[in-house]
Amino acid sequence: MQLLIEMWQVILITLFRGDGLISYVLMFIPFVVFLELPLYLISWLGVFRHLVKESHEAPFIPPHFPSITCLIICYSEGKAVQNTVISLLEQTYPGHIEIIALVDGVKKNQVTHDALKVLLPLFSSHAKRSLIIIPKVQRGGRVSSLNAGLSRASGEIVCAFDGDTSFDNQMAYRASLHFGDANTVAVTGPMRVRNAKESLATRLQNLEYMLTMQVGKYGLAKFNVINNVPGAFGIFRTGFLRKIGGWNTGTAEDLDLTLRIKQYQNRHPELSMDFEPKAVSHTDVPESFVDFFKQRLRWDGDLWYIYANKHSKGFSSSLLGWRNLIFLLWYGVLFQMVMPFVIVFYMIFMSIISPLVLFLASMSLIYFFYLSLTLIQFVLYLVFISDRKWEDLNALFVLPVFPLFHFFVRVWSAVALLNQILNRGHLDSAMAPWWVLKKGKQ
Does residue 133 sit in helix, strand or coil? Predict the structure, then answer.
C-alpha cells in the first residue's frame, strides 16, 4: 500500500512541475496516437459502415448457387479430421460441395487417411456432396497440397481449410453470397476458438481472436485493405486463383497470396477481398503458453520473411497502389514490425532513466490505458458483432489480464523477428520439409 502511495506521489510531482506533463506525455503517447488508435478507429468505422449499409439493403438472393470445392489440408489430424468433413457435409448450402482431402505424407499419417475413408459411405445419401481423398506418398508441405487440390478442383469457388477446422452450417451459403459480385475474388470470416475454456492461455487467445482477428478484418475489409486472408479459412474464386498461379512456395503462404492479390488489384482496382461475419469457422489454439509462444515465433517471424525478403521489391505504389501501400507500411511494417522493438527499447529506456517508483507508476498508467481501450473494444464487439453474446461474455473474466498478455505478445514478436533476421527462422517450420522451404526465396 505504501508503494502505491509513493508511486502516485511521484507521478503527481512529475506531471505538475514545469514542463513535466508535456515531457512525460511525449514519452509514450505518440506511439499510441499515430500508430495504434487510428487502426482501431478505422476498423470500427468500417464495421459501422457495414452495419448501416446492411440495415438499409434488401437481402441478396442469388440467381444460382455456384459449385464449391473445399480443400482440406491434412497432416497428423487423426480422427479430428472427421469433424471438419462432417461440418461441410451438413452445410445448408443448396449447391454442390466437393470435398477434396489431401493427406500429406500418407505413410506417416495412415490414421488420418483411415479416418477419412470411414466417412465415404455417408456421402452416398447426399447427391450434392462428394468426398475425394488424395493420399500423397511424398510429403511436400502445405503449399504442395493446396496446389495439388487446386489442380483437381471442379468448383467455381475453392476453399482452403485446415484439417482440424470445423464450421457453422451456414458458412458456405453466407460466403457464397459475396461471389454474386463478379469483382469479389476472396472472402474470409470469423475464426472462433473451439477450446476456449481449456486453460488461461486459450481464454486469452479467444479474446484476442475476437478483438483483433474478427473486428480488425471485419472493419478493414470494408475499405478493401484486409490485412490477410488466413490459410486456415480462405475462400477464393477458382478461375482467379488459377490465373495468378495458385499458392507460392514457402511458409506464410496465406500472407504471400494476399499480397499478390493486392499487387494485382492495382491494375484491376475493381477487384475486392471481403469478410463475411456470419461465415463462422472454429479452430483449436495452443493450450499452454509454451506452445502458444512457439506458434507465434513462426507467425511473427514470417512477417519479416514475407515483407523484408520475399516481397521487399513489392512495396511500391506502382504495384500496390497508394491505398494498399500506405496501409501496408502503416500496419504491416510500422505496427507489426517496428512497434515491438519500440516497446522493448522504451521499456529499457524508462527503466534506466526513471526511479523505480516512477517507472512502476508509468507502467501502471499504461496498463490502465490499454485496459480501458480493451474494455471499449470488447463492449462494442459484444453489442454490434457477436452472434453468441452469452458465450462471448465469459471472456470478460480474463479481460483484466489481457493488456499484460498483449504486452508479452508484442515483446515476443520482437524476439521472433530477430530470430528470423539472424537465424532465418522460416526454415524451421512444420509447414513443409526443410528441402521444400529452402527452394523458396530466402
Answer: strand
CA distance 370 to 391: 23
Read off the pLDDT of residues 60-103 as tens digits, 9 standing for 90 and up: 677 789 999 999 999 888 888 999 999 999 999 999 999 999 99
pTM of the model: 0.88
Question: Whole-angstrom Cα distance, residue 261 to residue 263?
Answer: 5
Burial class (CB in 10 A: 0-12, 13-18, 19+), 281: buried
Q: Is 379 exposed, middle or buried (0-12, 13-18, 19+ CB in 10 A)?
A: exposed
Per the DSSP assignment, residues forming a β-bridge with 133 are: 101
Q: What is the pLDDT of residue 61?
A: 72
Q: What is the DSSP string of 289-353?
A: HHHHHHHHHHHHHHHHIIIIIITGGG-SHHHHHHHHHHHIIIIIIIIIIIHHHHHHHHHHHHHHH
249 neighbors 436 (Cβ within 8 angstroms): yes
265 close to 319: Cβ distance less than 8 angstroms: no
Domain ranges of the chain: 1-59+181-442
Cα torsion 201, 207, 212, 217 to 10°: value is 120
The DSSP code sequence of 407-421 is HHHHHHHHHHHHHHH
Q: Is there a contact between 221 and 185 (Cβ–Cβ < 8 Å)?
A: no
Side by side, the strands of the sheet bearing 191-193 are 166-167, 281-283, 191-193
Judged by DSSP in three states, 74 sits in strand
State how far the Cα of 334 lies from the Cα of 435, in Å rounded to an integer: 32
Among the listed residues 214, 219, 227, the one whose alpha carbon sits nearest the alpha carbon of residue 41 = 219
Region for residue 186 given its phi and psi (left: phi exceeds 0; alpha: psi -120 to 50; beta: otherwise): beta
Q: What are 276-325's pLDDT values in tens digits?
A: 999 999 999 999 999 999 999 999 999 998 998 888 888 888 888 888 88
Closest CA to 253 of 134, 151, 184, 160: 160
| Residue pair 135/103 in contact by the 8 Å Cβ criterion | yes
* Pick from 195, 178, 194: nearest CA to 186: 178
How many Å from the N-terminal Cα to the C-terminal Cα in the chain?
54
